[in-house]
Amino acid sequence: MIGLNRVIVGDARRELAKLPTSFVDCVITSPPYFQLRDFGVSGQLGLEATVETWVDELRLALNGLIRVLKPSGSLWLNLGDTYSRHARFGAPPKSLLLAPERLLLALSKDGWIVRNKVIWAKTNPMPSAVADRLSTTYDFLYFLTRSPRYFFDLDAIRLPHRSLAHSRRGRPYPPAGTAAPRFGRVSGNHGLPAQRARGKVGHRLGKNPGDVWPIGTGSFHGAHFAVFPPGLVERPLLATCPERLCTRCGAPHRRSSRARHEGVGPNGPPPREPRVFRLDRRYTVSRRRGPLRPGCACGASSRPGLVLDPFFGAGTVGLVAERHRRHWLGIEINPGYARLAEQRVARASEQESPYEGMRLWREQPRESARRQLALRG
Known about the structure:
The protein is α/β, with parallel strands linked by helices. Helix content is 23%, strand content 22%. It has 10 helices and 16 strands. It has helices spanning 12-15, 51-63, 65-68, 99-109, 192-197, 230-240, 316-323, 335-346, 354-360, 366-376; strands spanning 6-9, 24-29, 69-79, 113-122, 138-145, 167-168, 171-172, 212-215, 245-246, 254-259, 276-279, 282-285, 287-293, 302-303, 306-309, 327-332. The protein has an 8-stranded mixed sheet with strand order 1-16-15-2-3-5-4-8. Strands 6-7 form a two-stranded antiparallel sheet. Strands 9-14 form a two-stranded antiparallel sheet. The longest helix has 13 residues, at 51-63. The radius of gyration is 23 Å and the shape is globular.
């Protein structure tokens, strides 16, 4: 039996072969970028002689996930590019190596389905002294699956609407029939033109967060100098790692979701209040997520979903998993970083994240809700 909520010290290319088949619900990881850092361990990824060799080695490691990951599972891959210093690295000097693109093309040939390319827009990027190009202020987060059908809980990561429904001369805008033919039939829109015709700005539970995420870089001050920010891990975890699943058949449990209308005065709450959504020119207090319901008729017990990070580093994936009551497993080649990650997760605070509050906020009396919003205003 594989122990959970711990760090395995070793090379991911070998340790993945020791894990059971269809064991992991989702993978969230940030492998070493090409020629960027030396982690002080022989045989490490990232210091290959050419970018093509880096692609081959990382491709081998990631394809080791195919057996371990459930058919309904997902892979979230954080990657960044680097600049060539010599033609022997695989590109002319001063040119981008296009390392993420090379790797994604190789993974696509191996059967991975590339569902999204998320832009991590760093709100506090490192300053740069370069004078003949623009500073690089983003990285990529790729969302990949092995199957066209997989677990994804969009309601868990929806965001508040920022705009209000409006009209022109008393008629809904945009006018009916002006959208592209497929616009109202796209899965997840729930007939958006029809909703706008009724004066709604979008889905009653909030909007899809999209594929550009403004998130600051990590602020961990330990010995590890390349740390995942928790905000970059949180959305993938909540969307693709089930809260609970059946121990017999593995079917994930799901929550029912609903939005409750409640007026809170002419001015409404602060625009950044995370539990409040704009709807029908009014504010509605908090989307409410109901109890978890089994997705099968087995009647068996349940367990939390399991997230794996094969390049564990400072342990941010484990820290966020603990915060959201998921199981986790990490693989780290550097023993010093493995100890650092275990200590960091062990002493992590119980601080509630904005998403956790939105998901687990319980029903309150109307007077109490109004009073809280008034105080925050």
